[in-house]
Input
Amino acid sequence: MKKKFPGLLILGIVLLLASCTSKKEKEKSPITKANHDIEAKIDSILPLLTLEEKVDLCHAQSKFSTKGVARLGIPEIWMSDGPHGVRAEISWDSWDYAGWTNDSITAFPALTCLAATFNPDLAGEFGFNLGEEARYRKKDVLLGPGVNIYRTPFNGRNFEYLGEDPFLASTMVVPYIQGVQKNGVAACVKHFALNNQEHWRDVVNVEVSDRALYEIYLPAFKAAVQEGNSWAIMGAYNKFRGQYTTHHELLTNKILKRDWGFDGVVISDWSSAHSTLEAANNGLDIEMGTGTDGLGTTTENHYQHYYLANPFLEKLKSGEISEAVLNDKVKRVLRLRLRTNMKDDRPLGSLNTPEHHEVARKVATEGIVLLKNEDNFFPIEDKKGLTIAVIGENATRSMTAGGGSSELKPQFEISPLEGIKARFKKAKVIHTMGYETGISEYDVVHPPKLNQDSLKAEAIKIAKTADVVLFVGGLNKSHLQDSEGDDRQQYGLPFGQEALINELSHVNENLGFILLTGNAVAMPWLGQVKGLIESWYLGSMAGHAIADVVSGDVNPSGKLPFSFPKQLEDNAAHAFGETSYPGVDMTQHYKEDILVGYRWHDTKNIEPLYAFGFGLSYTNFKLDNISSDKENYTQNDQIKIKTAVSNTGDLAGAEVVQVYVGKKDSKVDRALKELKGFTKVFLDKGENKSVTIEIPVEKLAFYNEEQSDWEIETGDYQVYVGNASNHISETLKITVK
Ligand code: BGC
Output
């Protein structure tokens, strides 16, 4: 304590002097007062730091923290995963959990579910509540959200991302980030960029056109930076055009820092830095995770060997790297602190509050997607004499354990079975697993322990006795399923589920499926189930949310944030063979170019099994009187698309009005249509509302590779208004002059 005072005193005096800038200077500055104060403070702190102290700010001191400057009272930075909950404490020097007993949290639903809500307000609530937990847990940086575009259903990490459409991902990520950061906790949007598969992620070199880069893979990052004002961004493991993305001349230096004006920190993914010169010169600010053991191999602290530690210091001392390069990084890491742990009026945060649980439940229920509902299978009425057989391992399996860095230690996790039992009090609810899989562990596949034939036989037996069978299956968080570190290896359901569903349907045709995945799966069994719900990974309140929808307490309103192809080859990334996915000789070419997801299905006329934007409700909606405010627009105009939405059924519910735009006579190849606007409308039964969706004409631009810039083509455009990418109520023609 004693030692800290002189430093603090000096810091205080310098800050005071720095705040005495003339009024005139302040008036000239285009930045706000808060920003101005921050910049002035940064300028006043920088000269106080030694070269060594400055270098120390640019790399890890432990698995999830960086050093402060103790003599000046500058705090350490503490980070934590991840996108849908604050991860349990990890040890100082290894990936082992630290074994704390006060780090249990609320598990929020995975980001596929959040995207499926198509509700940006909810994304704001999600971010804010999650940020409160991060703050309470004393974190300065939350390592999320993830916005890598869903390119292939094999990607083990799709569940951590916001789907296949850049506009949807951009729209949802902005309020999420703003929500987190209201707590004085930085969001760290990840993984920048083109980390669209886990297979070979450390080495794979991605080759993709400028158009696809700018139109598909970068927009959500750009929105995160420019509209969400994300204070941090994480580099990715993979290469792009031969260079590692974490310190990339084009991606980090030019696009992110110069073109987008990003003033936050670039943090490496854990062990994604590969060179001192590139890290220094190509925009990496904080290096994390290089190697694992702090003191594992030598007596000297391992963190001093990081690319941005001693090797960096040496090059600075020899003049090979200029101090200006270091100062730019240090300014950014100081800015990060002044926005977070050196901010005066920082909120205190909170943990596991009823509000947090309620938001988790709300996102979960709004994100669940009803895909099939033959004979009004759902909702199921709770009544005496009804026997419901809940079959399937996912009815009881934890989906917060496993999956990689997004693994959570929730205070509680209501399983689907618990949720159904809690809601269905009059009916008799019986359960058996039907199949069993091994425990979820990173990078390891554990075989099952139980006899699968007996489990199956038991399932068939109880299915026969039930009035309704709810099969709760899908994927899980194990290696080679929905998990970080590698990709799925089959498009169909694993663990013998297809055969099991087939047999169940033969003994009980009243069969519904609650599918837990973060990815599309093949559905050869679709004709054998009457009802189908995609329920993602829903976190702490999973079971309650599922029961809300199954019982009809909540009317489903989720929409698919990615397409479900009928077969794997119908997915654009897989249509071109191995060159495109997973790559050959560690290089892959995104051959489908801009035609990702529904853009591919639409343009190539390949009918999906379930289309992007699709989702049923227990009520019916009608869109009519669809019009645009004008027929002709100039390049600076806003296009206003108006539609009446009516709830024509018997229940309150919500519909997502989706506006897509296409250009048939374009001078470049375009997708048939692209999502450009949407809004979620809540309607009582019989209610009718008029909604207007505004689209700036500039959003119709394509990226012109010859000019290396966006271009708005003049001429006619088609505007498609509907409630799914394959369900369009009206097509309008507009013209841009
Ligand atoms: C993941 C990141 C994560 C980091 C820290 C990496 O393996 O790719 O998403 O934030 O680990 O756990």
Summary: Residues 81-82, 143, 190, 269-270, 405 surround beta-D-glucopyranose (CB under 6 Å).
